[in-house]
Amino acid sequence: MKLAGQKTRVFIIVELGISLALLLLIILPSWQNIEGSKKTITERRVTQAETNQLTERSNDLIQRSGELEGKINTLQDRLISPATALDFLTQLESTASASNVVLDVKSFDQPSAQKKEGALSLSAIGSFSEVLGFIHEIERLNWLLQIENVSFSPSAANNRSQSDTDTGNAVTLSLEASTFWKE
Q: Out of 45, 71, 97, 160, which could bridge 164 as a Cys pair, Cβ 3.0 to 4.6 Å?
């Protein structure tokens, strides 16, 4: 009986070993699949978070590009072109007249192939306050100008009224500016 009992114990131990081996063969891959699934789920969460972040950035860039497009269109409207050069000069003369100064446009050059901006040179005669008002109004024109050089000098004022020349109030403004053109 002892032998039968030992065989039974050995048989039980072998069965337990086989059962454990089978269990490990079944559970271990399942455990690895579970860990792999956890990793995949985590990666998908990260990917979804990244996707959401990229979507937000994309929407922000689209909004900014729309704002920039409006600003670019506004800037394009402020550039001088050969078709609008006469309008620019007309507005410049109207501004001088409204400021009560006598305007003399010395040069108004379009840009060359080497330079992207044109040149404007003018003089204006009026009282000091009128000339300052004229400069202020030039800066407010709907055209893109960069004032490069401004100088004032007493004026003989042959184009001004006698009262200005008698009181010595007349000044001559010399102004040079860059003008920016569309192609």
A: 160
CA distances to 24, 30, 34, 120 from 37, rounded to whole Å, are 19, 10, 5, 72
Backbone angles phi, psi at 160, to 5 degrees: -105, 170
Are 173 and 152 spatial neighbours (Cβ–Cβ below 8 Å)? Answer: yes
End-to-end CA distance of the chain: 112
Which residues 6+ apart lie within 8 Å of 171 measured at CB? 125, 126, 127, 128, 131, 152, 153, 154, 155
* 85-98 vs 128-140: helix crossing angle, rounded to 10: 150
Q: What is the pTM of this model?
A: 0.56
Contact 173/124 with Cβ under 8 angstroms? yes
Q: Sign of dihedral through CA atoms 128, 133, 137, 140? A: positive
Distance from C-alpha of 180 to C-alpha of 172, rounded to nearest angstrom: 25
Q: Which tokens in the block code for residue 133?
A: 């008002």
Give the amino acid at 26: I
